[in-house]
Amino acid sequence: MQAIDTTWVLVSAALVLFMTPGLALFYGGMVRSKNVLAIMMNNYVAIGAVSVLWAVVAGSLAFGQDAGGGIIGNLSLAGLTGLGRHLAGFVHVGASPMSILVFQMMFAVITAALISGGTVDRIKFTSFVVFICIWLLVVYAPLAHWVFSPQGWLAKQGVLDFAGGTVVEINSGFSTLAIVLVLGRRRGWSNEGMAPHSVPLSLFGVGILWFGWFGFNAGSALGMNGVAVSAFVNTQLAAAAALLSWIVFERVRESYPTTLGAASGAVAGMVAITPCAGFVAPMAAVVIGLVAGVACAMAVRMKFKLGYDDSLDVLGVHGVGGLVGMVLLGLFATKSIDPSGANGLFTGGGLHLLGVECMAAVVTVAFSFAMSWLVAKAVDMTIGLRVSPEAEFTGLDLTQHAESAYSLGGMGRIGN
Amino acid sequence: MKLVIAVVKPFRLDDVKRALESIGVKGMTLTEAQGFGRQRGHSEVYRGAEYTIDFVPKIRMEIAVADEQVDEVVDAVVGAARTGTIGDGKVWVQPLDTLVRVRTGERGADAL
């Protein structure tokens, strides 16, 4: 165990935690002013609920000793006890097992928080909490075990996923699509104006996401080494390239390069580089970013034609960006960056890697969508996912939380 | 007494205020307003979704004036607010029954 590796993983864990408040600002700016607190609350409550549940049991389901077949971990680490010298399968990793578990806790937090982006303006607060708690146990934890644990069945197939192109990105995208289909669209969508109430808030949120993403990707090296440096550099390059390609796409297609487009492009680039970060060369990261910016810019325009109200484009940015990253990793991965990785189609590795990356992507799409749909349906049939039409009209800030984001001040009095 | 109400383009505000001061108008009340006339609105694009915004930001000014000064004030506002393009705004005049200066209790034209 190396102190420097543990240090880096702990710093990265804090960086990844900071992404969720960043996401709250990003999302908060994109909704109407009557729903801004509700969406931010759903991000913050994910920090609360997922952190505790992860420590109690979900972390063990993901990273505990394999219970058989690479499907799920056992309960040996429940309550963050019984950690020993290494997590199961992580023999050559320098960071301490506890540091890795708390780092991974932050991944689970933000993945749950991401889902809230599809559900804005209409989901009942308690139902969202119940959904993400069940989802964490039956969707996130198994997927994390399959991909992130060296004992997982997908990892054993040789699937490469550096920081969660499947577990975080494709998973959040398709889980969101599932809950959105059960929840239904917002009243008045897509004729009524539902424009962002504060684009500056969103831009600042993306700045925080960008900052935190260095921990997310470079921290996933689980040590302070050359792979971490590559992941750091690639994160920056892909984000920058996608920012550019998204606004070029807008400029060509709709005449105006928009600020929200630039911010969304940066996110799309970071999503796509997530699975690739420690496995590809810097110029490959630029190409991955360029492709992701255009692909996601096109994807967020699909929902109007297909008619699903993925309100803040979790599927369009994270689902599609994650798919782009997994496929391009099959083309660009190179052992010259991480010798323990693999070579892709363009780097002399043939079709094998591309095949397993596509397989993992398809498995994740199917599993995330199907399981999340079942969980959403179960919650809907028991306690109901959606607020009343009147509450939806009034806004969730007042009806779910008895607060207003913006008030003139000095109004009202305390008590009755 | 009359109440002159003018809805003008925000960027003309400084010129209108200067024109009114130059003819001796001592006070006015402003509100940031939104509205549309023939100008209609504009469109905004968020992630490819185009929104038609019907209401355009305007400044609404209210100026209480003595009867004999009404034409001069209206001309000053119109002259300073005009750009010659669509959306320059409107000015209208209403009768004003009572006016009280809160500090002194003065009433009518004395309170102007």
Task: Give an overview of the whole structure.
The complex is a heterodimer of chains A (416) and B (112). Chain A has a single domain, classed as Ammonium transporter fold. The radius of gyration of chain A is 21 Å and the shape is globular. Chain A is built from 15 helices and no strands. Chain A is mainly alpha-helical. Helix content of chain B is 20%, strand content 37%. With 112 residues, chain B is an alpha+beta fold. Chain B has helices at residues 13-22, 70-81; strands at 2-8, 29-35, 42-46, 49-53, 56-65, 89-95. Chain B starts with a strand and ends in a 17-residue tail after the last strand. In chain B, helix 1 packs antiparallel against helix 2 (70-81). In chain B, the strands form two sheets. Chain B has a four-stranded antiparallel β-sheet, with helices on one face. In chain B, strands 3-4 form a two-stranded antiparallel sheet. The longest helix of chain B is centred in the last third of the chain and has 12 residues, at 70-81. Chain A binds chain B through residues 30, 190, 193, 195-196, 199, 250, 253-254, 256, 258, 260-261, 264, 297, 300-301, 304, 313, and chain B through 44-53.
Give a concise summary:
The complex is a heterodimer of chains A (416) and B (112). With 416 residues, chain A is mainly alpha-helical.
Shape of chain B: elongated
In what order do the strands lie side by side in the largest sheet of chain B? Answer: 2-5-1-6
| CATH topology call of chain A | Ammonium transporter fold
Kindly state the number of beta strands of chain B: 6
Number of domains of chain A: 1
Largest interface pair = A-B, 19 and 10 residues
Rounded mean pLDDT of chain B is 92
Helix content of chain B: 10-25%
Relative strand content of chain B: 35-45%
Report, as a whole number of angstroms, the end-to-end distance of chain A: 60 Å
What gap, in angstroms, lies between the N and C termini of chain B? 9 Å
Sketch the topology of chain B as an H/E string, one letter per element: EHEEEEHE
Largest sheet of chain A: none
Beta fraction of chain A: under 5%
Q: Based on CA inertia axes, which overall geometry of chain A fits?
A: globular
Separate helix tally of chain B:
2
Mean pLDDT of chain A: 96
